[in-house]
Amino acid sequence: MQRRRVLVVDDSLEMARLLADQLGDLGYEVAMATGGEGAALLLERDVFDAVITDLRMEKVDGFDLLELARKLDPPPPVLIMTAFGAVESAVEAMRRGAFHYFTKPFRLEEVRLSLERALEARRMLDENRTLRRLARARSGLQALVGASQAMRALYETIERAAHSAAPVLLRGESGSGKELVARALHLEGPRASAPFVAVNCTALPASLLESELFGHLKGAFTGASAPRRGLFVEAHGGTLFLDEIGDMPAELQAKLLRVLETGEVRAVGSDEVRTVDVRIVAATHQDLEKKIRDGSFRQDLFYRLNVVPIRLPSLRERREDIPRLAAHFLARSRERNPRSPVERLGSEALQLLGGLTWPGNVRELENLVERAVVLGGTAELDRALLERLLNEGASEPASFSRERLMPLRQMEDEYIRWVLASCEGNKTRAAEILGIDVSTIHRRERERRDEKD
Known about the structure:
The chain is α/β, with parallel strands linked by helices. The protein is built from 19 helices and 14 strands. Helices cover 48% and strands 13% of the residues. The strands form four sheets. It has a five-stranded parallel beta sheet, sandwiched between helices. Strands 7-8-11-6-12 form a five-stranded parallel beta sheet. Helix 2 runs parallel beside helix 3, helix 13 packs across helix 15 and helix 14 packs parallel to helix 16. The termini are far apart. About 2% of the residues have low confidence.
């Protein structure tokens, strides 16, 4: 279990040291400051679960520390120590947001009980925030739509894997629903009431991703104006979803491996380690075995992550789910666009959807249905509108079908768009796959715009 961090502040060194030693014996991780100025610096550069401070101190007093603590995110509960004659001031501190006060001399049992209540109240607030966030998200097995054999097999795997703490590696094409499955694994298991935290490993450069994952102290690097707990600490007791793990920079892979092996994280700029209890779910659309062979992904990290491998079927592999998915997305789109006249999918429209190859998978289908609901002008969504939206390439490209004949130039354009969609719009990666310069992709896009004009 993670040790709670408490900051003890008193301008009497003897008093601060006595209380810090007693709390340390109770299992808390304690930092000590002999005065408000030093405590303010600690609060600004590090993260604490609670603060116990004397009220009357020179220069920076307990009121100042209380105000500073309440501005932090999340704010730690503050407990006030005061002399018997200053009870009115302690009551004023509680009016300003202090959790509790006790008068000197005090009994250790009184401090212990007050601190436990403060930390429990803090835990409940964190849990309520998590539950509200989860309630807003469409998560769990209920968010996965489909009754095909491939999906039934996936549901069974999720139900079995959800109750394990073992790392899971989700593999599947872009747009196949990996984050939905990660959330389902979290919500169907014993960690459901704890945080679910997600990060995309391609979204940040290596230096910022390290800080995002492990946290940092104030001043650890340029721009670190406040301390940060890091996503591992935020996900303590719950699940951390590492999306696109195949793109994690090599220098971070070793650090991630160490966390998986030891359960300890070290914030950037800190010499201290914190123990975390986090279930890891990672996801990728890449060929990790190939990346291991070319040296861009660590084999030992792969084995750590691939304890429970789960492969997500592409939409092409479960075409029988397309009508159900399309109807589901139509209903959701109508909720967001209540003025749209579109109410249902026509039989020819469904036939068209069933014949496409869907390089963007479920995400591509959802985007197409959303566009149709926004732009449709009749109650029944017909084939003609879908064909027009597909050929216009309003977002993701039309999929290929052997029944469609077209000029070579048009096929080249559609294939470029198909690769771009598979790479989620990353033109550099798409150019590498196509074996062309990225400027060629930009040129072809300009030419298509000029032709429309």
